[in-house]
Amino acid sequence: MSNSDVSFEGRKTLTRKRTSILKSQWFYLLVAEIVIAVITGLVNPRFFSTSNIMNVLEQIAVLGVVSSGMTLLIISGEIDISVGANIGLSSVVMAMIIKAGQPYLIAIIAGIALAVFNSLLVGITARAFKAPSFITSLAFISVFQGVALAITKGTFQTIYGKFEFIGTYRLWEIVPLSFLISIAAYIVMHFLLSYTKLGRRTYAVGSNPSAAYLSGISVNKAKLSAFALNGLFIGVAAMVLLSRIGAAQPSTGSGIELKAIGAVVIGGTPLAGGKGRIIGTFFGVLLMGIISNSLNMLRVNPYFQTVTFGLLIIASLAVSVLSSYRKKEKIKPHSSKEENR
Amino acid sequence: MQSEALVEMEDVTKVYGMHRALDEVSFDLFPGEVHCLVGENGAGKSTLIKILSGAISPEAGIIKIDGKVVEELNPRQSIEMGIATIYQDAELVDSLTVADNVYLGNEITGRIPFVIDSKSQMKKVNEIIAALKMHLPTGALVEELSASQKQMLQIVKALYRDARVLIMDEPTSSLGMDETKALMNIVRNLRERGIGIIYISHYLEEIFEIGDRVTVLKDGKSMGTSSLESVTVEEIIRKMVGRDASLFYTRRKVDIGEVSLEVKNISRWGIVNDVSFDVRKGEVFGIGGLVGSGRSELVNILFGADKADSGEILLNGKKLRIRSPQDAIRQGIALITEDRKKLAMLGGRDVVENTALVHSENFRGFLLNLKEEEDVTDEIVNKLSVAVQDRSQKIEELSGGNQQKVIIGRWLIDDSDVYIFDEPTKGVDIGAREQIYELIVELAERGKCIIMISSDMPELLSMSDRIGVMKNGRMVEIVKNDNIEEEDMIRRFIGV
Which InterPro entries does this chain map to (chain B) (predicted)? Predict the structure, then answer.
């Protein structure tokens, strides 16, 4: 505002009301996590041992990195269900380069670049053919898997004894490096979403693409940026996964996209886009890790674990629908707050 | 007209919030009659037919159908009582044939159960078509039909269901000359068969050609019904306009400077046809015309949201290259769109994000400045007195007037040279309306060029320095606003 003549008298300064913690979905996730942990810990005290906790954190590291990228993509109003196949392809490529005796750095750069390229392909085809990215990514699952099978001729790419640092290093001999990488992924994504133009654009195109376009935002650019960043996170996840397992095959990572989408949705980011925060995704991923570990500790038949994940997603949908009902009832015409003196 | 009325409405009232969309309107329709409804945009015509078709229910008044009082009317009952509405965008199934569409949900089955007897269906539909002297291929798919054929199909469908009241809402707006003539013949044909027709049209020539009686609506009130034999075009137009002085806004005069925006020969095939005009600094250039005359399409081109086939735009003597809204914004053009919800609001996002949207996107680097965003939001909220509780309130929770202020405010943070307002006060309460007018005048005082599209006649006449009249994609004339009468203006819109 270059030439505003509002006097300071009668001027009202708005406050940013802290959103009540009770309205955030992540708070409920945290409560659920504590309840599950306490119950499991009572039945099997080993649950609270340091080694078990670190084990859980290590297990959810890859999912955490993938889910961070997925959060951005879903907020932008798009989706990618070829994440698993993309991880499979880029991790076998990394493994093959390492096997060929090239430096690790080259393998990592090539693998991540490939993942970015793959994710961009999904996005570009969706935007170019005006098709939902659900469909184009569905198609690319077969493409990525097929290419991975072709270049490996279906064989396992083992790199035992090499490239173990990322998967095995523990800070102070306790905290797994892979977990720290996933924390870094959350933080980077939070920063992008909340403090950069890129994040603001992502919310805008996910919320109302027409309004975003008419405000000067290039919708294509914004959405393709989301795809590219998603690819970057997929590449990092593939790197962590390869280092931990020490081998890769075309089916490496398959199915992780559904867990990631589940974690994002449980964390309060609707598939419709335009809304959502990374903290929700963090607790969504954590919940998945804790439940999985608890079921193991409680010696539940592993087949039922899969069932539990499905029911969990349904339950989270129910929670978000119910909370939106409650909100609608509350909306009344607001009267202006007259004074603030 | 001696027989009993098919439809009688007495003192029907429909209220939306503070707004009386229909105010004690009475209306009747006899068999074998074409009763026309005329009025400006928003006069209450659509509300009236929505009530008759059961889509909405009135707050007060009596509706009689065939002399019997109807307590409640839902869409299904309305159809069962023989009332059929022909919409422009028909609910027809594109992938089925003409005959199948007529029988949709009531298919004739032959000897084999569940198998449709297409032959008898076709035969019966052909009989109706022949009786109406229409040209309609029964076996063709609906997606192959023209707009006028789709309308005829709807008429056939209505007659098949024994409709005795046909409501036609702007039936000729998308038809050519020949098609209009054909439709007129069909309407006459229907009238001879004793069907009552409610005919809504902006085109007064059509009404005089085909109507028996006419009812004029204005601002939700009936201005009376008269026989078309005993009334002139002038009398009808006079009834459509002539408002209370309180609806007009008295604005300050602004010194008008030199020509700043020049629009030359803009065309977009089939939509906007060779439009030229210029706007001076400090001038409010109004654009009037009927809905569908190409007004919004024209400003979308100026703003880069649509592409022009030919023509050029100059600002302060410099030729502009506009290929997207982004280009337009960077070169000093702002557009406040007509459809707030669809085209402007980020519904689930908060007030700050909605206010700072244009600024942060176009006038900032990679990093946002959250403090600055909050400060400019405070400025806008104070300047436009937006009633908002706190910064994190979602824009969708505000009232219509406050939403509009936030949307306008987002264009005030950084200066533009040209401000285009498309229906700036649509769905805005009276208090906020005056503030928006005040703001527009302030912008003019600061030497901005203002383009304002409005369907609200008092608004157009009280705000504009000059008015460009759009008709069928052309700007047919540009009128200097020296106390123009409403009556005079509407005559130019309709073109009589």
Answer: AAA+_ATPase, ABC_carbohydrate_import_ATPase, ABC_transporter-like_ATP-bd, ABC_transporter-like_CS, P-loop_NTPase
Structure ipTM: 0.75
* Tens-binned pLDDT, residue by residue, of chain B (496 aa): 446 888 888 888 888 766 778 888 999 999 989 999 988 767 888 888 888 888 888 888 888 888 888 888 888 888 888 888 887 666 788 888 888 888 877 777 777 777 777 777 888 888 888 877 777 888 788 888 877 788 888 888 888 878 889 898 888 776 767 777 888 888 888 888 888 999 988 778 788 888 999 998 888 888 888 888 888 887 888 787 766 656 678 888 888 889 899 999 999 888 888 999 999 999 999 998 877 788 888 999 999 998 888 889 999 888 888 889 989 998 999 999 988 888 888 988 888 888 888 888 887 778 888 888 888 888 888 888 888 878 788 888 887 788 888 899 899 888 889 999 998 888 777 778 888 898 999 999 999 999 999 888 888 888 999 999 988 888 988 988 887 887 788 878 877 6
> Per CB distance under 8 Å, which residues of A are interface residues toward B?
1-4, 6, 11-17, 19, 195-201, 203-204, 207-208, 210-218, 274-275, 331, 333-337
Domain B7-241, classified CATH 3.40.50.300, yes or no: yes
Domain B258-494: give its CATH architecture: 3-Layer(aba) Sandwich (3.40)
**Within 10 A of A188 (CB to CB), how many other CB atoms are there?**
16
Tell me whether residues B390 and A14 touch, CB distance under 8 A: yes
Listed in order, the ranges of chain B carrying CATH 3.40.50.300 are 7-241, 258-494
Identify which of A232, A244, A243, A237 has the alpha carbon closest to the alpha carbon of residue A260: A237
State pTM to two decimals.
0.75
Distance CA A241, CA A91 (A): 8
Contacts of A20 (CB under 8 A, 6+ apart): none
Give the residue from chain A lying closest to B301, CA to CA.
A214
State how far the alpha carbon of B176 is from the alpha carbons of A92, A318, B135, B179, B393, in Å.
64, 52, 16, 5, 49
Q: How far apart are CA A230 and CA A276, in angstroms?
A: 16
